[in-house]
Amino acid sequence: MTLVEHLTELRRRLMISLAAMCVGTVIGFIWYQSAPFGMAPLGEIIRGPYCNLPADLRADFTGDGECRLLATTPFEMFMLRLKVGALAGLVLSSPVWLSQIWAFITPGLHRSEKRYTFVFVTLAVTLFVAGAVLAYVVLDKGLYVLMSIGNEFQVAALTGREYYGFLLALVTIFGVSFELPLVIVMLNLAGVLRYEHVKDKRRVIIVGLFIFAAFMTPGQDPFSMVALAASMTLLVELAFQFCRVHDKRAASSRPEWLGLDDDQASGPIAAPAPVTASPAPAPEPRPEEYFNDVL
User: Fold this and answer.
1) Which end of the chain is more exposed for a tag (fewer CB within 10 A), N or C?
2) Does residue 239 surpass a pLDDT of 60?
3) pLDDT confidence of 263, banded at 50, 70, 90?
4) What are the beta bridge partners of residue 58?
5) Distance between CA 134 and CA 224 in Å, rounded?
């Protein structure tokens, strides 16, 4: 394909992906308040950790005991609903835009590269979703720890902007952090990182992961920090074990002489053998000389 044909193909893929995202955003916008088939509305799912708090830790603005977040600007509720709907549309349309990305890049890849690319994309999406789910579970417990500190003197009155910002930040940090083991595996397959480089540095790596979790968790509560650091430590250890097995297999299938220096690979050089001169054979008589002897 020419450059213009590639750009035309890219534009077509982008248009299909954007159309799928728009449809997903509309579905997410509707799902925010009402859900079919007996499902819970998306807004109710998102505010679940906040509504699971005891009633004495939440401010009651309506007097009817309903769990509601506070809005301080006229367009805050609409913009939050639109933002949540867009995020839900991005997730709902992910099979479409991922397949479009896959269809655009696979014609330029070899068969083995296609297989590895598909595996890595699938693992990346799976790890991000696993991190997002863990963040949602952690928020249910971590929010209680944060909101119960000093409840004798104050009551929490969270706005939708603050709560959604905290939730989305926690989900993003957990999801992106769960991609770390995949990066380690990719570096190992590329030959940049080997198991022998990290096998004696586990203590330093674990301490670094806990420091990272302490700084990156939005609320800096101990529950979220320990959950993120412990899960990352487990995933990194699994990645290290993959590196160990892969390096062992690569070493067993590699010839021994590839790991030697030039002098060692060539082996000991034997001493030169002496050259002995052999006597030259007598020249054969020419035909005219033979006939002269006969005559």
Assistant:
1) C
2) yes
3) low
4) 156
5) 10
* Mean pLDDT of all residues in 231-246: 90
Q: Report the C-alpha gap between 56 and 65 in whole angstroms.
A: 11
- Answer yes or no: is pLDDT of 289 > 60: no
Q: Do 242 and 185 meet the contact criterion of CB atoms below 8 Å apart?
A: yes
- What are the pLDDT digits (tens) for 97-143? 877 887 787 777 677 666 777 777 788 888 888 888 888 888 887 77
pLDDT of residue 19: 94
Q: What is the DSSP string of 97-147?
A: HHHHHHHHHGGGS-HHHHHHHHHHHHHHHHHHHHHHHHHHHHHHHHHHHHH
Q: Which residues contact 90 (CB under 8 A, 6 or more apart)?
A: 21, 24, 25
Question: Which residues are within 8 A (CB) of 23 and not within 5 positions of it... i.e. 6 or more apart?
Answer: 89, 93
Spatial separation of the C-alpha atoms in residues 172 and 216, rounded to whole Å: 11
d(CA 280, CA 288): 23
Under a CB-based contact definition with an 8 Å cutoff, are residues 132 and 91 in contact?
no
User: What does the radius of gyration of the chain's CA atoms come to, in whole angstroms?
Assistant: 35
